[in-house]
Amino acid sequence: MGIDTSLDGAPDGALDEALFNPRSVALIGATADQAKNNSRVQRLLARAGYAGRIVPVNPGRAEVMGVPAFPDIRAAPGPIDHAFVMVPAAAVPDAIAGCAEKDVRVATIYSAGFAELGEAGRALQERVVAVARAGRVRLLGPNCLGLVNVTDGVPLTINAAVEAEALAPGWLGVVSQSGSMMGALLSRAAARGLGFSRLVSVGNECDLGVGEIAGMLVEDPATRVVLLFLETLRDAPALARAARRAHALGKAVVAYKLGRSDVGRRIAASHTGAMVGADELAATFFRENGILRVETLDGLMELPRLALGRRPPAGNRVSVLTGTGGGAAMVVDRLGLLGDQVVPPPPAMRAELAARGIELSDSPLIDLPMGGGRGQYTTVLTALQRSDHCDAVVAVLGSTARLRPAQVQENILSVYEGGKPVVMFAAPQADAALRLCDEAGIAGFRTPEACADALHAWLNWRAPREVATAPPERLRAAAALLRQAGGHDTPRREGGDSLPRREGGDTLPRREGGDTLPRRESGDTLDEAEACAVFEALGIEGPGSRIVGGPDEVGAVEGPVAAKLLSPDILHKTENGLVRLNLAGAEAVRAAVRDLLATARDRFPAARVRGVLVAPMQRGLLEVILGYRHDPEVGPVVVLGLGGVLAELRRSFVVRLAPVDAATAREMVAALPELRVLDGYRNLPRGDVAALARAVEAMSWLACLGGATVRDAEINPLIVRGEGEGVVAVDGLIALGEAAREEGATP
Description:
Blueprint lengths: L12 H8 L3 E5 L11 H9 L4 E5 L5 E2 L2 E2 L13 E4 L6 H10 L4 E4 L9 H16 L3 E3 L5 E4 L4 E4 L2 H5 L4 E8 L2 H14 L3 E6 L8 H10 L5 E6 L5 H13 L3 E6 L13 H5 L2 H11 L3 E3 L2 H11 L9 E6 L2 H14 L2 E2 L4 H8 L10 E3 L8 H11 L5 E6 L2 H4 L2 H6 L10 E5 L4 H10 L3 E2 L2 H12 L12 H14 L21 E4 L5 E3 L6 E2 L1 H11 L7 E3 L12 E5 L13 E5 L2 H18 L8 E5 L5 E10 L3 E8 L4 H4 L2 E5 L4 H10 L17 H12 L9 E11 L6 E3 L2 E5 L11
Parallel strand pairs: 1-2, 1-5, 5-6, 6-7, 10-11, 10-12, 12-13, 13-14, 15-16, 15-17, 15-18, 18-19, 19-20
Antiparallel strand pairs: 3-4, 8-9, 8-11, 21-22, 23-33, 24-27, 25-26, 25-27, 28-29, 28-31, 29-30, 31-32, 31-33
């Protein structure tokens, strides 16, 4: 059913306690040698005044730092809630086996040398996971620096930054896929006087991952904002559940994610997969699950104060007030590049202020030189907070903020009303002024880039989108066709001829001049006729094509037609010269069929050729590409973009998590600038945008077939006809996923 976004399945309270606040901790690989990292956990626990029982495990020592030690965790007395594993990678399986025998609830594995090193390490990691699962031990890591429960004073970590910084309890929770970045966040927070509740380094995420940990932090009363430092998305459904639960509880989740490259496009079978890269998919995932996303590390640290206790705004309009033009202009310029609306004061406000002796222009930047004189700054700021023309206000201060921090109190805090967000950017380095803002509940920023980054994230923050449903009868019809195409019965297109029969379901048709090919395996690509039959079952009109096996089967031809080779092994027929258009008369079609079959045998001798599709030429106002993909990171998505042979070059598209409802489908159509011509732009003919939106919605229903039944699907082009005339799928592609067998394709 796509991403599971229910609020059910609350985190395991016993696991949460064992992970963050254990009554007893075994340190497997403990040492008293201060020069070794393995000694740091015990030192930190002692310094924090940990009230639980510490059990050092070291076969060569009777005691470690004055605490009795044991040669093996199996020999340790009493129950143990949490084990911190610091032995070489090869010894980890036995250490986890010992944890299982002692009924340890959770083990954190600091040891490296697993999946991060390649296949051999991955095999060892899988062995560790198998041992843990058999013994019902949950794992954090491996290759992680551990965690810190700041609220309760439990530092189960080897991170040197925890030893260097004085940790202050606070309302920020952190989950990081990079252990070293935890240290960076700690140092920046210390400089700003910010405090944390819990911090977790997840490492390789062989078991406990970002999503499940975030779910625990969301339920933690001390945590009010959850920060995520991500390199990839490994368990999107769990993270989606956590983010939606956070929204329900009035908490915010803020993400900083690396990996904005196009590497993920290399393995895509469809144009759709090539168009939409990992970063666009991640941005969609964050937005539609109510996660705020920042692009700077400073933004990650400074946005939480802005989001704390607030709900997503109604719009993305911001007003900027300054007494120093240059610093504010940098913020305004950055916001403009990000696509946010920096709005001028409305005429009514200007008139009201003019009556009080304050003259403002209609510029988007409200500049009061040198503060505008006594009381002007506070008067204008009060008016901006009370006006409904903007959703947030940026108050910019100049050098006086550094020389006289009390100016923050005079100009901003004294009139802050606490409803509409007011954020402060101090152009100089003004740490004391920023601290005053933090204490008063106002977000303060050190750089114009971080200010614009965080404000953009908040202005574009939206509540999680409701997950759509699909008509059961449509799903049943599509699922049946997919089962048949996956190696079972032969599907029959609605209103058309049956597709070539596969004898007994075990073999595919013989190619002309070739041997019988083996039965299709799950993960293969459907041919165009099979794909279009599935799309028709979902409610998208097909091209009305028929299959001919050779020139002698052409028969009568009415009107101009198109002829295309039919093969599941040749995905992009136009690029490979396997399409003939505007054919008039039976003789022209027979010649084209003969030529297409010969070309395929010559250029693609191993391809499975099932004949030639002959279909009436379709005309319309515009060609679009409509795609679906079950992405390995974010799950199912639906994509709408400009179609035809230039689809990948133009890279103009809109992507949403699938399935979508009718309203979201219409919003996707409206969001693509090039499709505005369909609204009658400059007296051009109006297109059937309603039918296009219905097709987008129907394509997204593939997400409801269960698991990864369909890996990729695409209609390119989907021709949009005139208003009231519908849309037609001219070419189609479906690549099956691993769940494409009968049991996996049942809705």
